[in-house]
């Protein structure tokens, strides 16, 4: 099945806001070798002016990938996940994520480009406070869906 | 620190604002500021799967990885990306000082199971070097350009980190 280019421009809001916990931050920090006490100890984080433990810089990938999945797993998106390769990733932070944050997330399908039998898809997930008033981070991801002959 | 097995978490450290964070005025374009060798084991991939919720089979099941044309199980690109930024965040002292981080995944990092010994024995490693690419004193931002290889092959491309410094 070919990738459905008609979904370019479509958007996918996460149904429930993503709640950031101290446990999730500590677990992610350990898994990525992020050893600053500010990921584990609220007092250490407070010394930097944070209201609670601060998330490592790529932590936003958790809510972002959960939101991207709303698009990628859509049956009519035409994406065979076994053929998906991660092409690139970019995080841009308005402010760091901290424990206690409740984040709304919306994934926008910015581009679907077909070339040489492959499809390259660019998604942009905007993370904001749950009320939508304050931007927190933007995660831009490209995936490549390898063609049948590749 | 870098030669410590990954199965044993490295010791937490306690940075504080009084630590010597790099000063923008001291940074010289072209100067290397971070080098590290980051060992990886199959256990690290399992740990990252659990922490991130990314349970894609190619990151833990060798049979499946081969069936889809890979040489063996490969790391999550995001584990590579996350491990690299951890070393840069240590240099920056405040992990929240990283305001922008981008990369391209140019080659998969294959992580075979350890043939003997403990299952969390590292079987590959990432070699990283970060150097100062640009300094914007007006904006208070330094850009680092990062090279990341594994087994001599470039695995991340056009990797840039923007760090807010005073």
TrEMBL record, chain A:
Residues 17-138 form the FAS1-like dehydratase domain. SUPFAM superfamilies: Thioesterase/thiol ester dehydrase-isomerase. InterPro entries: FAS1-like_DH_region, HadA-like, HotDog_dom_sf, UPF0336/Enoyl-CoA_hydratase. PANTHER family: HYDROXYACYL-THIOESTER DEHYDRATASE TYPE 2, MITOCHONDRIAL (PTHR43437:SF3), HYDROXYACYL-THIOESTER DEHYDRATASE TYPE 2, MITOCHONDRIAL-RELATED (PTHR43437). Belongs to the UPF0336 family. HAMAP family: UPF0336 (MF_00799). This is UPF0336 protein GCM10023167_07560.
